[in-house]
Design goal:
InterPro entries: LysR-type_TF_proteobact-type, LysR_HTH_N, LysR_subst-bd, WH-like_DNA-bd_sf, WH_DNA-bd_sf
GO biological process, one term: DNA-templated transcription
Structural class: alpha/beta
Number of domains: 3
Organism: Myxococcus llanfairpwllgwyngyllgogerychwyrndrobwllllantysiliogogogochensis
Strand content: 25-35%
Distance between the termini: 54 Å
Order of helices and strands: HHHEEHEHHEHEEEHEEEEHEHEEH
Number of strands: 14
Shape: elongated
Protein name: LysR family transcriptional regulator
Keywords: DNA-binding, Transcription, Transcription regulation
Number of helices: 11
CATH architecture of the largest domain: 3-Layer(aba) Sandwich
């Protein structure tokens, strides 16, 4: 099953054999024995290409989950007798992961040398079960789901613009004034084009006019620095820019709702000691919001 899965994902016996450290002929015989036992072809083979049959695609979906559960069970049991070990797949939001999780990794690896980390940095929604991910870190309101979540930290957002943009313009005096300004919108935030503000007991909801939408917060930061408009960006990203005067806070007496940073993992599975170790380590290091807030 492991050999078939490796070939199916690489679509190459040679590449899969190198990954598993066996010969291609040995791997081919193993897959052939599996097909004989199942009574159906899982792969189409030509001299140049390997592809999945319909049965192979269905079998790959099921056996990926089975192999993941086997790996979790082995890691959980082995972890009872010593340090956590095994491969740990973690999905991280791109920018937050680079700025605030990646710097923690060397210390984590020194503390848990038997864990093999596999990190992916991307802002898209990752299906943990479908993609075989052990832990994901997500920012923002979590949709209702069956995932188990642990809150790690809180992210505060600021409304900012560059001095260049504000030069010669009347700054917004109240949230409703934003309708007259081009706004820079982060695509993945649930609030979309409707921005909510609070000031004490006051609440204001404004429909903004996005001049730029992007699924990468760094692109929005660069656009704000370039004088393209007003944006709501996290303090972990623009705090230094505000302190240095490269960006200026707008509507400073109004607040934008904070969002949480969460570690999530699928329920109903053995939570391996390696996953528990990673979540606990990151939670410890992120406690108290390590980024400065202006």
């Amino acid at each position: 099953m492991l050999g078939f899965s490796a070939v199916a994902k690489a679509l190459s016996f040679a590449d899969a054999a190198r990954e598993l450290r066996v010969s291609a002929s040995t791997l081919s015989r193993r897959v052939a024995r599996l097909e004989a036992a199942l009574g159906t072809a899982l792969l189409r083979r030509t001299t140049r290409h390997v592809s999945l049959t319909e049965a192979g695609a269905l079998y790959l979906e099921r056996c990926t989950d089975v192999l993941h559960r086997v790996e979790e069970a082995e890691a959980l049991v082995s972890g009872l007798g010593g340090d956590p070990k095994g491969r740990l797949r973690v999905a991280l939001p791109n920018l937050f992961g680079q700025l605030h999780v990646a710097p923690l990794i060397p210390d984590f690896m020194r503390r848990y040398p038997r864990i093999e980390l596999e990190l992916t940095f991307q802002d898209r929604y990752v299906d943990l079960v479908e993609e075989g991910v052990d832990v994901a870190i997500r920012i923002g309101a979590l949709p209702d789901s069956s995932l188990v979540a642990r809150r790690l930290a809180t992210v505060r957002r600021l409304l900012v613009a560059s001095p260049r943009y504000l030069r010669g313009r009347k700054p917004p005096a109240r949230p409703q004034d934003l309708s007259a300004h081009p706004c820079l919108q982060f695509s993945h935030f649930a609030d979309g084009e409707t921005w909510t503000f609070s000031r004490g007991a006051e609440r204001a909801t404004v429909r903004v006019r996005p001049a730029l939408r992007a699924d990468n917060a760094e692109a929005l930061r660069l656009a704000a620095l370039g004088g393209c408009g007003v944006s709501a960006l996290a303090t972990f990203l623009v705090g230094e820019d505000v302190r240095a005067g490269r960006l200026v806070r707008v509507l400073e007496d109004w607040s934008i709702p904070e969002v949480g940073v969460f570690a999530v993992h699928p329920p109903g599975r053995l939570v391996a000691s390696k996953a528990r170790a990673f979540v606990a380590f990151v939670a410890e290091r992120l406690a108290g919001e390590p980024w400065d807030s202006p």
